[in-house]
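ok so heres the complex, two chains, lmk if somethin looks off
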Amino acid sequence: MSALATDRPVPQVELRALDTLWFQVGGTVCNLACTHCFISCSPTNHTHEFMTLAQVEGYLAEAAALGVREYYFTGGEPFLNPEMEAILASTLRVGPASVLTNGLLLDPRRCARLAALAAATPYSLDLRVSLDGYDAASNDSIRGAGTFARILEGVRNLHAAGLNPVITVTEVCRDAATAEGKARFFALLRDLGIEKPRLKVLPVFQIGAEAERGGAYASWQRLSDGDAPDGSWDHLQCSGCRMATDQGVWVCPILVNEPSGKMGETLADTLGPFPLAHSACWTCHVYGVSCRT
Amino acid sequence: MALTTHRGMATWGERLVPLGDFRAAAARAGRALPGPERAAAAAGYSAPFADPTPVEGPFARIAVCGGVYSNHYALAALLADAARRGAEAVYCLGDLGGFGPSPEKVWPLLEQGGVRAIQGNYEESLAAGREDCNCGYTDPRDNHFAELSYRYAERHCTPAFKAWMGTLPKRRRVRVGGSELLLVHGSPRRVNEFLFASTAPVPFLELLAAQNRCDAILCTHTGLHWHRRLPSGRDVVNVGAIGRPANDGRTEVWYAVIAARAGKPALDVKLVPLPYDHAGLAAEMRAERLPEEFVETVLSGWWTTCLEILPARERAASRF
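and the predicted structre for the whole thing:
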């Protein structure tokens, strides 16, 4: 690392308001092992374990008192967690919920149960399904053999149950962020009978498995005080979110594989500022990343 | 060894380490405040703040609209309807321009009607000479149409009208009966925060109202009307928009009538559908060569733009 990078003071991001609470509900355990996963999830990665319903409900109670607006669930694969649907039922009593899933466990019966949960709450239940290409060749090279067909099957099942997922694509898929690329995804979804296709494109974080696939960060990719527009870091998602895992509360959904990203045990421990020391913070700033839908 | 082969190991950044090492480091990281400090941190975070905004009124009944979007046809209809319903004052929560035709035509109507307005993001942007409307959209197509309508409004508002917009307050406090109402554009926190019914949960709204020391919050910005009475007895009302229909297949637009009542609840909240000359509006929009997508919305009651910002529940109820 160059002297320049280490000599600069590390900027601090204040918590503007705790609007979004994430849950690493599936831990780092996944039924896939995507080559771009920034936290290297796999069937054997137990860095973080499933969260229990009791753990989630503890944080929900604290979050409600702090006025949290929305709840997001990720992993790993959230639907590997046997308590996932009970967790969603509890969450939808206090606020809107979004689940980030790889789509492989969305059989018709589960989709019907999710639709029933959505119908029983005044709040939004949103499903986000990851896809990394317009066709099997491009997607499967990232997400694993045969996954393209299985993901589309899950999307079709959601649609048949009356749920309209957001398809999440990373920029590993070339052109995904361009108008042309989006049009191709919309066409793919319309071919499945989805009349109101929804799409979210995310940049990649050069950490975890992605560091091996696409390359790690260089030392200059770090933030300093002067980078803050108008002196404020309010545009960063960490100014409005925290991430609960089985091992405590982290600053954001990206840094869960860094112990230094952990801020405390309860949400009340984590209402202070956080140092923007990691290169992933640079990606959030430069690409304007929000993991929210 | 690939990072995805983990038996007994954990990923720590780009390294594989024994699982126990990661767990031990995580257990040491962060802070675990003693109980009283935790309670103090949470209380400090949630504490109410002072608001020097003067309190207007008291009134027995007021009409509150938002999102005029240059719809002078609906604004004229609203003034007549509010008078017929016995409103003692008419409030407007901002976004006077955009979407519709001939933005300056709403100005004399506002003045003649004695409408008490606050700034929306539109007024903020036009008065400050900003390049964009600061609507807060995240989708390129939504932003494309927002930009078209902002550019049109910017060209068709005189400097005098823009300067007048800059004199409007950002928020108002109004007494209706014994209740104090806080009137804002997006939310008490941000001019362009979207408060949709399905993403504005009760605990969040309770905290907003408590922090702002008010009995009711009235807002707009989303274009979709809703009312939620909180367990504390407070009310949160998104008054919707009179500038374009509410994405429900009806051509009417919506506003709110708030009246004092004896006993509890202390407020009577009515969301009111307002018919107006929508065919006249559509014809004028076409004459002004505004996007046909906007005209279609006026005539059908279904939104054709601003769709990507809708939460799952509102999008599911949407035609497009």
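quick notes: Chain A touches chain B through 63 residues (CB under 8 Å). thats all i got rn
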